[in-house]
Amino acid sequence: DGGITQSPKYLFRKEGQNVTLSCEQNLNHDAMYWYRQDPGQGLRLIYYSQIVNDFQKGDIAEGYSVSREKKESFPLTVTSAQKNPTAFYLCASSIIMGGYQPQHFGDGTRLSIL
Amino acid sequence: AQKVTQAQTEISVVEKEDVTLDCVYETRDTTYYLFWYKQPPSGELVFLIRRNSFDEQNEISGRYSWNFQKSTSSFNFTITASQVVDSAVYFCALSMNRDDKIIFGKGTRLHILP
After folding, report:
1. What is the 3 state secondary structure string of chain A?
2. Is the separation of the CB atoms in A80 and A62 below 8 Å?
3. Residue of chain A whose alpha carbon sits nearest to that of B40
4. Under an 8 A CB cutoff, do A88 and B95 touch?
5. Residue B96: helix, strand or coil by DSSP?
6. Closest Cβ–Cβ partner in B42, B101, B107 for A45
7. What pLDDT band is residue B98 in, cutting at 50, 70 and 90?
8. Under a CB-based contact definition with an 8 Å cutoff, are residues A49 and A29 in contact?
9. CB contacts, 8 Å: B108 with chain A
């Protein structure tokens, strides 16, 4: 079945540590996105990518980094500079970039601080 | 500025009751798109519907219906004869034709009580 796979489902970060969240899609979608979800806050866009080797900052990119070396993969690194990383992280994709395109989402990764 | 407001943070109804989730949006664009997504306890967001700004026809899909009114900038979602499986967080979202991003409301948590 086509879809988006996020791993791991749960992740713990120690002080000063970088951690990487994986996102893989087999939908052949060009555009991919990372969102952060906090309780009662809705979804906030961290980074997005329209094509391979290109990505743009979203609304809350500070303390995060991404790469897009392959069409199907868009990993997110939460760096030690992100002082409040505890949240639920969702990866999404759409056929192409464009406000009218519905996005397809993965199951999410829940990140906590140790 | 573009904005989506879901004033109902949490709603509880007894199974088989009808329930309406409110969504009010703000934009100065004449072309825009409205979405509803469902987030069940498993975490992934599931796309339910997209409506463009030029189509004010109401839509019905099984027990789900949507009422789009440009005059009041609202895009409300009604579940008829609710079921326990409808329990989830529901997000209303807005995007503009020219913009790549989707703006999400903060969501409404719906509890259907058996």
Report:
1. CCCEEEECCEEEECCCCCEEEEEEECCCCCEEEEEEEECCCEEEEEEEECCCCCCEECCCCCCEEECCCECCECCEEECCCCCCCCEEEEEEEECCCCCCCCCEECCCEEEEEC
2. no
3. A107
4. no
5. strand
6. B101
7. low
8. no
9. none
Q: What are phi and psi of B86, to 5 degrees?
A: -80, -10
- Could you read off the pLDDT of B2-15 as tens digits, one per residue? 899 999 999 999 99
Percent of chain B clearing pLDDT 90 (strictly above)? 83
Q: What are phi and psi of A112, to 5 degrees?
A: -130, 155
Q: What is the token pair recorded at B11?
A: 């709603």
Q: Please, are residues B20 and B110 in contact by the beta-carbon 8 Å criterion?
A: no
pLDDT recorded at residue A1: 65
Q: Please indicate whether, in this complex, the C-beta atoms of B106 and A42 are within 8 angstroms of each other.
A: yes
Surface-to-core class of residue B48, CB atoms within 10 Å of its CB (0-12 exposed, 13-18 middle, 19+ buried): middle
Among A92, A100, A102, select the one facing B52 at the smallest CB separation. Answer: A100
**Phi and psi, residue B89, nearest 5°:** -100, 135
Distance between alpha carbon A94 and the CA centroid of its chain, in Å? 13
Residue B102's closest chain A neighbor by CA? A99
pLDDT of residue B55: 87
The pLDDT profile of chain A, 114 residues, written as one tens digit per residue, is 679 999 999 999 888 899 999 999 999 999 999 999 998 888 999 999 999 999 999 999 999 999 999 999 999 999 988 889 999 999 999 998 777 888 999 999 999 988
